[in-house]
Amino acid sequence: MENFEQIKRDFEFRDDDVRNILRLKPVMEKYKEEFIERFYKFIFRFPEAGRYLKSEEIVKRHQDKLREWYDDLFSGRYDYSYFAKLYRIGEKHVEIGLPTHYVNASFNFIRRFFIEKINQEFGLSEERNQLVASIGKLLDINLDVLTAAYREEELSRYQIMSKFEKTLFVTAKKFSEMLDFALVGALILVSFFVLGLFVYDIYQLVFGIVPIDKGILMTLGTLLVLWAVSELMQEEIKHLKGGGFAIGAFIGVALAAVIRKILIVSLSAEKALELLSYGAIVLALGIVYWLLMNKKV
Questions:
Q1: Cα–Cα distance, 252 to 279 (Å, whole number)
Q2: What pTM does this model have?
Q3: What parts of the sequence cross the membrane (predicted)?
Q4: pLDDT, tens digit (0-9, with 9 covering 90-100), for 160-214
Q5: CA pair distance 212, 204, nearest whole angstrom
Q6: Domain extent listing, the chain
Q7: DSSP string of 190-211?
């Protein structure tokens, strides 16, 4: 871990900030239980919160640790033991596989909670501004130390690799990035084809090549597919920026394509069996999509 005094200097956390934190201590003490209650309401909004807090015993132990962290935050003692304790918390987060996104989002809630209470107690004043600035620095330091464990874990994994493994790792990463860009290019090409199909459907409808009812349904179905491909492309762009892989978007495209077929087949009374098979496919895809969008671990 980096020298803790250097960390404080980097964040310009000085003696006057410590005095401001101690000024806040008796004020924030009365909000501790409210903080615990609201914090838990907040984190249980995370889709996978139940994976990490899966029993009453774990929740109680975590609440006790959270109270201890709260007390330490306003203690005014920010020495080696304080930073070492923070780092151990970060290591525990890494050990259980807690996403850094959850840590960052939690600190955003904590910051907003403290500012809300400071505003209630001190109103709009210069003292309020100084208190908010000091607690903001301290929270930023906490977040920096907690996430340092994640950075060192990633670095240590890379360092223990052999030369061949490092080369393979870098090559695989570059190849994966190339495939992602190729997928975006393919989606752009598919979008043009679907757009061409939409124009062709309009052409058939306007010039009476197909019955008007069939033409309208074909056009609406193609428009649905075009919308789904657009959504898929947006999700893939998010993935290129570092987001997760959106398998749900691919299922959405499949649903749109099958629904288009249903719209067309529904006009023919002789294709009842085919219509039922398409309906079964939509039902299966719909269930998979619902499970993905509402998964709880």
A1: 15
A2: 0.54
A3: 181-203, 215-233, 245-269, 275-292
A4: 556 676 677 567 777 877 887 888 888 888 888 988 988 998 988 888 888 887 7
A5: 9
A6: 4-160, 164-293
A7: HHHHHHHHHHHHHHHHHTTSS-
